[in-house]
Write a structure and sequence with these properties.
The chain is mainly α. It contains 20 helices and 2 strands. The protein has helices at about 5-20, 30-35, 40-55, 60, 65-110, 125-155, 165-175, 190-195, 205-235, 240-245, 255-275, 280-295, 300-305, 310-335, 345-355, 360-375, 385-390, 390-405, 415-430, 435-460, and strands at about 115, 250-255. The chain has a two-stranded antiparallel sheet with strand order 1-2.
Length: about 450
């Protein structure tokens, strides 16, 4: 009987062997010109599966084994086809996948060893401060790490309140998405950009876009939460301010894991400047994760309700995504000019709309590939470094794609990995979260006007 470990082993071996085939890293532009359009069908089916199956067959989709089967069914034919037409490309993608999963796994494991005990006061001011801290942390320990670290303490702080679904929604907006813009550690799309040649510190150039978007969201949240808090305080007996006071002082367990997080950040930073070969930074990140597992007390992870299921889910799904997206990337790089996208705001919204309903990591690669094609930048292993070298137009297009992928992953529950995880944790805590379309009503009313302002301020000049 096929088990999940067989699926994971098969995927890892497939990628490992593909990585060994990499030799030349030659441009895929000529091959992209010859690829048929039907070669992107598995990629479309892969992303459609992620979007639709959880809504239609939720129980079946809960099994990581079933996700792995989907990845294998759609990924293996594409891998065989790419080996035939342009084998080096599969090797390049294999190495990117392994770096990507090791980073996410290290951040997930290490942050899962940090437990915030005690409680906060669930007042609008404290809630806003917690979201602001989360926006900063998201850029340095990842949106997934920051979300898993902070969502339970925030829920506990607001336990006495009746109306609190909006707190979780804004948490998804800010911590699980928009906050992760400042470093390649923040959000998976940006780490993929780093692997493709974007300097580690380049994303700090997006600080104004980050500050504007997160700042407005925090202001809107504070005003809305103040209104909700006051409305509930009037409607129910007793003083709500006293009812939300913390019952236990704050404390942190597993503080040694901050040292390991620093180790991961240092490995990524140094690899970009010392030109480490593949395997050095990956080994260092894996070592930090192993140290975290060995050193962290078991009851600390138990208090965090830590399991390996979420990172296994990411590993098996992204194996299929990384393989099936190869033809799409090659086609877009070769024919990007045919899409009619020319201006930064075109790329901001095109990337954002796709990131709302598809995963934002492959969307980022898809749109940067299109941008590179428009500016005649070959699809080499470090093509984004070449895109930035083109000049101001290349910089603006990459800025627009980066912001669109990170920000608009917040538009739906399926736009970014942490969104559904946060929703599930809230529902486990008996918070009645809005439906898929109910959540979209919030994003349409709150996020879209902010993104329109962002467009006119940053991408129309």
């Amino acid at each position: 009987m096929i088990k999940l470990r067989h699926i994971v082993t098969g995927l890892v071996l497939t990628f490992g062997l593909a990585g060994l085939t990499w030799a030349s890293g030659a441009s895929a532009a000529e091959v992209g010109q010859r690829l048929p359009l039907w070669s992107v069908i598995p990629f479309a089916l892969m992303l459609l599966s992620i979007a639709v199956i959880p809504l239609m067959f939720a129980h079946w989709w809960e099994s990581n084994l079933h996700k792995g089967i989907i990845s294998l069914i759609l990924g293996i034919p594409v891998a065989i086809y790419i080996l035939k037409v342009h084998a080096p490309e599969l090797g390049v993608v294999a190495l990117d996948y392994l770096s990507f999963i090791i980073l996410l796994g290290a951040l997930y494991i290490i942050s899962g060893g940090i437990y915030i005990k005690g409680s906060l006061a669930g007042t609008p001011l404290i809630n806003t401060a917690a979201l602001g801290i989360g926006a900063i942390l998201a850029s340095f320990i990842g949106t997934t790490g920051a979300s898993m670290l902070l969502i339970r303490p925030l829920i506990k702080a607001n336990k006495a309140r009746h109306n609190k679904a909006h707190i979780v929604i804004f948490f998804i907006f800010i911590v699980s998405n928009c906050g992760g813009l400042l470093t390649p550690l923040g959000d998976p799309p940006l780490f993929l950009g780093f692997l493709k040649g974007v300097p580690f510190l380049w994303t700090f150039n997006l600080a104004w876009e980050w500050l504007f978007t997160c700042g407005i969201l925090l202001i809107v949240f504070n005003v809305y939460d103040q209104w909700k808090f006051h409305k509930e305080d009037v409607a129910r007996p007793g003083d709500l301010d006293k009812q939300v006071e913390p019952s236990q002082a704050l404390g942190i367990e597993g503080t040694v894991n901050f040292l390991f997080l620093g180790g991961v950040v240092a490995a990524i930073f140094l690899s970009g400047y010392l030109n480490w070969q593949f395997g050095i930074k990956e080994a260092f990140m894996a070592l930090m994760a192993i140290f975290s597992i060995v050193v962290t007390k078991k009851h600390t992870r138990k208090s965090n309700e830590f399991t390996f299921n979420p990172i296994i889910e990411v590993a098996v799904l992204f194996a299929g995504i990384f393989v099936t997206m190869i033809p799409a990337l090659m086609l877009l790089n070769a024919r990007g000019s045919e899409l009619g996208l020319t201006q930064p705001w075109h790329f901001f919204w095109a990337t954002g709309l796709l990131s709302s309903f598809l995963d934002n990591a492959p969307t980022y690669l898809t749109m940067t590939s299109a941008a590179s094609g428009i500016l005649n930048v070959p699809l080499s292993p470090m093509y984004l470094k070449d895109l930035l070298a083109v000049g101001e137009q290349g910089v603006m297009l990459l800025t627009a794609v980066s912001c669109g992928a990170v920000f608009m992953g917040a538009n739906t529950y399926i736009g970014n990995g942490p969104n559904f995880m946060v929703k599930a944790i809230a529902e486990e805590s008996k918070i009645k979260m809005p439906s898929f379309f109910g959540y979209m009503a919030y994003s349409m009313l709150i996020l879209i006007p902010i993104f329109i302002l962002t467009t006119f301020i940053f991408f129309r000049g």
